């Protein structure tokens, strides 16, 4: 080759011929070197990422969309076979008819466009291919500079080098801008026609395919005439290239299009407090931040039951309508799975997104007592263990005195059973039990039931002086209700990427992986049904008396009251619900009605939620035995006992003595003695006053 070039140059050609020959050879060599360099660069750089921003979608338990994270941009990703062939073909013919024949650049089209622009002394014709536009959408801005053009060319060539044509076309159709914040053909289909991209008709496809050319000019929502003219042009192109015949083109051109309204496209704002919790859980599970989650195109399948959520919100608002200032929160879980099926974190999310169910930690009051008595059962107590309920001063080694009191200063002034102490929420019985066990034992139990954080190991812990969130307390009650196979509280069942690949899937905890004792848990749960049972009335009515007549199913529950907070948490065999009410500024609740709201919300919701459920009772575990007890004496009930209540015991711990107080007139005698004692008390008081 060198000899041939040397011979050509040695001949007696004119100088300009020699110079032209040398220049041509140098140009060819330079072009070859440039192409080789470009190829090597592209090979070293590797395939460019096709990841782009996409909407993250949240689904309820039944698959209904409850929310879409898109900020001011709507994006969805669909596979090429999930897009109508009509809009695929219309897009190719209108944007890049030689798409399947070039390597990212249409040289013939570029030349024709350049000549046309030169003739008109203006840039009126573009020549960007689909690949170039896709590269621009993925990696670049839309500024008109040589730097951006060169980068666009490099990205386009790399795309063609490493991806097949269908992958590029699919990516382009999922990222091109159709106006009104809609990116991609699926978002555009939903926005303009309220349907999916694979449901578009020929007429709709031709209309949409024309919009990306100039969204502010060809959008039918902005200029319908311009949009129809471009639709007609695209239909004629489809006819020219034999995709459709003349008659089909005419029918499509004359088809009256039915556009979607903005209301049709909007997503209802369902359970916003719950959604925030889901987003927090998802970022933790995926190891990303909130912004990455919003734009990542994830499909998040949640545990939310929209009908249950609706019942909860309606019940809460109806119950609280007489007091616009008080706040409330509620959590509902499925004890069989641990799934959180409904959540309200406040009365108005737009007014305050602060989630009082998860973020607020308030003193839990007497809702802590079921865990205290669960602990006591381990140490030999039973449902009939008796302690005296009377004003008591507890003096410690350092001389400090603790003097708890009962609600409104009411006391039995005699021994009462644990079952009655729980039903009446007797504070003296609770503190005595805690002092006997040691406060550290209750702390350990709370940890066993999933409550974390620092909990004060003090005598008053028995009365709920610890500050815990409603979410955590409801979770602890859920574990109590399902102690045989406790499940972890969760809001997410599955997360997939935009292509459906599973990134996370919830796996339920295996049975009996915790320290919980199902026998003791059942005994406590059954004792908790006593708050609605008038047979346990004593020196005062059971704490659930005000709502007992509203209840038609079997429920276990416990209320809690402090100066600033009101709680009600309870469950059926199928549902656990926790409710808190109070004021954000921590002011005292001085009105009786303020303390009643939590019970009213709980009862109203539970009855609604169970309206169509079959009646169920709590199923005893294998190692417990049920015995009818006289609530007053704590002994086995005889046929003469006027009040009898079924109570459960771990086998071998049930009482063996029968009550004899109500046999052969003994009950009347005892009642008479009680009446005389009361009269004596009044006489003493009168003597003291006068």
UniProtKB/TrEMBL annotation:
Classification via SUPFAM superfamilies: beta-lactamase/transpeptidase-like, Lysozyme-like
Pfam family, any one: Transgly
Record carries keyword Transferase: yes
Glycosyl transferase family domain boundaries: 71-238
Keyword Nucleotide-binding: no
Catalytic function, reaction form: [GlcNAc-(1->4)-Mur2Ac(oyl-L-Ala-gamma-D-Glu-L-Lys-D-Ala-D-Ala)](n)-di-trans,octa-cis-undecaprenyl diphosphate + beta-D-GlcNAc-(1->4)-Mur2Ac(oyl-L-Ala-gamma-D-Glu-L-Lys-D-Ala-D-Ala)-di-trans,octa-cis-undecaprenyl diphosphate = [GlcNAc-(1->4)-Mur2Ac(oyl-L-Ala-gamma-D-Glu-L-Lys-D-Ala-D-Ala)](n+1)-di-trans,octa-cis-undecaprenyl diphosphate + di-trans,octa-cis-undecaprenyl diphosphate + H(+); Preferential cleavage: (Ac)2-L-Lys-D-Ala-|-D-Ala. Also transpeptidation of peptidyl-alanyl moieties that are N-acyl substituents of D-alanine
One Gene Ontology molecular-function label: glycosyltransferase activity
Keywords: Carboxypeptidase, Cell membrane, Cell shape, Cell wall biogenesis/degradation, Glycosyltransferase, Hydrolase, Membrane, Multifunctional enzyme, Peptidoglycan synthesis, Protease, Transferase, Transmembrane, Transmembrane helix
Domain of life, per lineage: Bacteria
Region of interest: Disordered: 660-680
Enzyme Commission number(s) of this protein: 2.4.-.-
PANTHER family: BINDING PROTEIN TRANSPEPTIDASE, PUTATIVE-RELATED, PENICILLIN-BINDING PROTEIN 1B
Residues of the Penicillin-binding protein transpeptidase domain: 329-573
Originating organism: Thalassobacillus hwangdonensis
Name of this chain's protein: Transglycosylase domain-containing protein
TM regions (residue ranges): 21-46
Location of this chain's protein in the cell: Cell membrane
């Amino acid at each position: 080759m060198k000899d041939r070039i040397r011979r050509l140059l040695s001949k007696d050609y004119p100088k300009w011929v020699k110079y032209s020959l040398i220049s041509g050879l140098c140009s060819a060599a330079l072009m070859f070197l440039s192409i080789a360099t470009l190829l090597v660069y592209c090979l070293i750089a590797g395939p460019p990422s096709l990841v782009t921003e996409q909407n993250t979608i949240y689904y309820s338990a039944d698959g209904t969309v409850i929310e879409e994270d898109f900020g001011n941009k709507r994006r969805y990703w669909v596979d090429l076979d999930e897009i109508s062939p009509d809009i695929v073909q219309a897009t190719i013919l209108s944007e890049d008819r030689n798409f399947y024949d070039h390597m990212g650049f249409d040289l013939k089209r570029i030349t024709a466009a350049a000549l046309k622009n030169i003739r008109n002394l203006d840039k009126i014709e573009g020549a960007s291919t689909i690949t170039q536009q896709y590269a621009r959408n993925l990696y670049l801005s839309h500024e008109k500079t040589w730097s951006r053009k060169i980068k666009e060319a490099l990205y386009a060539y790399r795309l063609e080098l490493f991806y097949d044509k269908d992958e590029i076309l699919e990516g382009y159709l999922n990222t091109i801008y159709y106006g009104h914040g809609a990116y991609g053909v699926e978002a555009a289909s939903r926005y303009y026609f309220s349907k999916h991209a694979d449901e578009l008709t020929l007429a709709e496809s031709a209309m949409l395919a024309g919009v990306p050319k100039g969204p502010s000019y060809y959008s039918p929502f902005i200029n319908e005439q311009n949009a129809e003219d471009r639709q007609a042009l695209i239909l004629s192109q489809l006819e020219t290239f034999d995709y459709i015949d003349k008659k089909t083109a005419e029918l499509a051109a004359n088809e009256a299009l039915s556009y979607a309204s903005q209301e049709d496209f909007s997503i209802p704002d369902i359970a916003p407090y719950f959604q925030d919790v889901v987003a927090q859980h998802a970022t933790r599970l995926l190891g990303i931040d909130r912004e990455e989650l919003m734009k990542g195109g994830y499909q998040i399948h949640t545990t939310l039951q929209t009908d249950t959520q609706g019942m909860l919100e309606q019940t809460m608002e109806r119950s609280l309508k007489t007091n616009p200032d008080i706040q409330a929160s509620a959590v509902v879980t499925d004890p069989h799975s641990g799934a959180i099926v409904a959540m309200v974190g406040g009365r108005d999310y737009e007014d305050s997104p602060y989630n009082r169910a998860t973020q607020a930690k308030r003193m839990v009051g007497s809702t802590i007592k079921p865990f205290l008595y669960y602990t006591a059962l381990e140490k030999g107590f039973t449902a009939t263990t008796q302690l005296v309920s009377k004003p008591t001063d507890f003096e410690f080694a350092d001389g400090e005195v603790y003097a708890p009191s009962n609600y409104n200063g009411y006391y039995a002034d005699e021994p009462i059973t644990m079952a009655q102490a729980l039903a009446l929420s007797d504070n003296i019985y609770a503190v005595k039990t805690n002092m006997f066990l040691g406060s550290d034992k209750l702390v350990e139990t709370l940890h066993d039931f999933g409550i974390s954080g620092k909990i004060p190991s003090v005598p008053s812990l028995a009365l709920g002086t610890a500050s815990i969130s409603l979410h955590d307390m409801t979770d602890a009650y859920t574990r109590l209700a399902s102690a045989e196979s406790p499940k972890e509280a969760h809001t997410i069942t599955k997360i997939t990427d935009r292509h459906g690949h599973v990134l996370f899937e919830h796996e339920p905890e295996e049975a009996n992986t915790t320290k919980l004792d199902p026998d003791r848990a059942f005994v406590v749960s059954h004792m908790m049904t006593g708050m609605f049972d008038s047979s346990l009335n004593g020196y005062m009515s059971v704490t659930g008396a005000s709502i007992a007549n509203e209840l038609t199913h079997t429920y276990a529950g416990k209320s809690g009251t402090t100066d600033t907070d009101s709680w009600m948490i309870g469950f059926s065999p199928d549902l656990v619900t926790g409710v808190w009410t109070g004021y954000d500024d921590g002011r005292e609740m001085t009105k009786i009605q303020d303390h009643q709201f939590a019970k009213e919300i709980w009862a109203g919701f539970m009855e609604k939620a169970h309206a169509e459920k079959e009646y169920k009772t709590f199923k005893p575990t294998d190692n417990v035995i049920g015995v009818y007890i006289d609530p007053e004496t704590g002994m086995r009930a005889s046929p003469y006992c006027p009040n009898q209540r079924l109570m459960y015991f771990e086998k071998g711990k049930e009482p063996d003595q029968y009550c004899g107080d109500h046999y052969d007139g003994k009950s009347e005698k005892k009642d008479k003695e009680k009446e005389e004692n009361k009269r004596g008390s009044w006489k003493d008081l009168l003597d003291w006053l006068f």
